[in-house]
Amino acid sequence: MLHYESLIHAEKEAIYEAFLKAFSDYPVRMDMSFAQFEKILKRRGFDPNLSVGAFDEDCLVGFILNGCRKWNGKATAYDVGTGVIPQFRKQGITKQMLQTAKQQFSDLGAEQYILEVLTSNTSAANIYRKNGFTVEREFLCCQMERGKDRFYSIHQTEHIVNPDWELFKSFWDFPPSWQNSIPSIEALSESFLISVVRNNNQIIGYGIIDKSTGEIPQIAVDKKWRSKGIGSSILADLIEHTDAGQIKILNIDTRSKQMLSFISAAGFYHTVNQFEMKLNL
After folding, report:
1. Alpha carbon distance 60, 79 (integer Å)
2. Which stretch is the leader sequence (predicted)?
3. 25 Cβ contact list (under 8 Å, min separation 6)
4. Cβ–Cβ under 8 Å, residues 105 and 220
5. How far is it, in rounded angstroms, from Cα 134 to Cα 275?
6. Which of 122, 175, 234, 258 is deepest in the core (most CB within 10 A)?
7. Among 3.30.300.30, 3.40.630.30, 3.90.420.10, 1.10.533.10, what is the CATH number of 142-277?
């Protein structure tokens, strides 16, 4: 008989093992190390008190890993990852875990719940729709093999450790997704390098890269300084300062035509699309 409870008493290693099993047939490879898994949890604000597990006796067979932060001025819960191991699927486990999680959020006072789901994963997206979620945005994800980038640095770049977030936000065409947001970067700040270009000592463009994974959560240029090679120079510098063989940019708002044009010219290729979905609580 399955039972549902928070993950406050679950060992992180057991969650990791269940995660690998649940995502073993996922369209995007998720065969990460335990250390990488821990980094993802920390970056996205995982809170075991707000997370739900489905247990077959003492074995974790399904999970919703959640976090909670302020998001657009509201107390917001976020689905870090949802999965059910293959042999326990099609039993209504995800639906039951969602109901359990929503009760926890209500007790917490969260105002909304957000998540991302692959646009190709129609069964999961339909489950969320049936539970009251609506699509907020569509994201594009892309990557590039290191060494195949087409951009070179023509502006002097430098690295900083104390970002001026309010200035950086003024460069944005769209707010970043949860995993690329300012709190997510600050939660794992030691993993990131920030490259900037200045004009008369004023920052006019910046980019951020995970030094080990090659993921770029944010890159933006002052609107008055675009199409002058600044973004290209920042991208070239970021690529030079990562150990990864692949460079990834995840969750680009598909409405941002300039960003899509930029990454295409740089040599990135499309991998998957995701919906950002929201449930008002």
Report:
1. 18
2. none
3. 86
4. no
5. 9
6. 234
7. 3.40.630.30
Strands (DSSP E) found in 41-175: 52-56, 59-71, 74-84, 112-118, 134-145, 158-160
Q: What mean pLDDT value characterizes the chain?
A: 94
The alpha carbon of residue 188 and the mean position of all alpha carbons in its chain are separated, in whole angstroms, by 13
Provide the CB-side half-sphere exposure for 221 (13 A, CA): 21
- At 31 the pLDDT is 80
Output the pLDDT for position 217: 98
The predicted-structure confidence for 200-222, as pLDDT tens digits, reads as follows: 999 999 999 999 999 999 999 99
**What does the pLDDT look like over 67-104, one tens digit per residue?**
999 998 899 999 999 999 999 999 999 999 999 998 88
Determine phi and psi for 121, rounding to 5 degrees: -90, 70
Assigned CATH for 2-110: 3.40.630.30
Tokens 């609580």 identify what position? 281
Count of other CB atoms within 10 angstroms of residue 170: 11
Domains 2-110 and 142-277 equal at CATH topology level: yes
Angle CA 85–184–139, to nearest 5: 65
Q: What single-letter DSSP state applies at residue 226?
A: T
Question: Structure pTM?
Answer: 0.94
| Domain boundaries of the chain, sorted by first residue | 2-110, 142-277
Whole-number Cα distances in Å, 149 to 98, 160, 244, 257 = 42, 24, 14, 20
